[in-house]
Design brief:
With 163 residues, the chain is α/β, with parallel strands linked by helices. The protein has one domain: CinA-like (Maf protein, Alpha-Beta Complex). It has six helices and five strands, in the order αβαβαααβββα. Strands 2-1-3-4-5 form a five-stranded mixed sheet, with helices on both faces. The protein starts with 5 loop residues before the first helix and ends with a helix.
Length: 163
């Protein structure tokens, strides 16, 4: 799968190398696309520790440590869940930075409260977790996944740059 974020991934890997930091990813709706973008960059093994595709809620809870109460109260697609995913993958891998995604890529699965294209992303950098809600609309599954990858790579890059 090709993404428009190759330069975003390259910039991120280069920045992580310069800062001597490591990264890991926890992905739901992107199904490994974020880690694929990062690992497509030569030299990424210096910074990329690992990834978990936590598509099912049981994996979010049993592997990443997302509280079942969090998923029950807020849903799998929520700020609270994606924050716990980012914190969980950082804890598991010992990474300095982490990225998490959870959302509804489409074309189905949306609700009135959370329509297709609703995606929560998170980045965690040395103890500080930042979240962002994306409302991508129903532009197509591949397009929503690619847009999410771009957004989450940009989020962590910007945070690392202090923006």
């Amino acid at each position: 799968m090709e993404y428009n974020n190759k330069s975003n991934a390259e910039r991120l890997v280069e920045l992580l190398m310069r800062k001597g930091l490591t990264i890991a990813t926890a992905e739901s709706c992107t199904g490994g696309a974020v880690s694929q973008a990062i690992t497509s960059v030569a030299g990424c093994s210096d910074v990329m520790l690992g990834a978990v595709v936590a598509y099912h809620n049981s994996v979010k809870s049993n592997i990443l440590g997302v509280k079942e109460d969090t998923i029950e109260q807020y849903g799998a697609v929520s700020e609270e869940t994606v924050k716990e995913m980012a914190e969980g993958i950082a804890r598991i891998t010992g990474s300095d930075c982490s990225i998490a995604t959870s959302g509804i890529a489409g074309p189905g699965g949306g609700t009135v409260e959370k329509p297709v294209g609703t995606v929560w992303i998170a980045s965690k950098i040395k103890g500080e977790t930042t979240t962002r809600l994306l409302q991508l609309g129903n532009r197509g599954r591949k397009e929503n996944i690619a847009a999410t990858v771009d957004e989450v790579l940009d989020l962590i890059y910007s945070k690392l740059e202090g923006k």
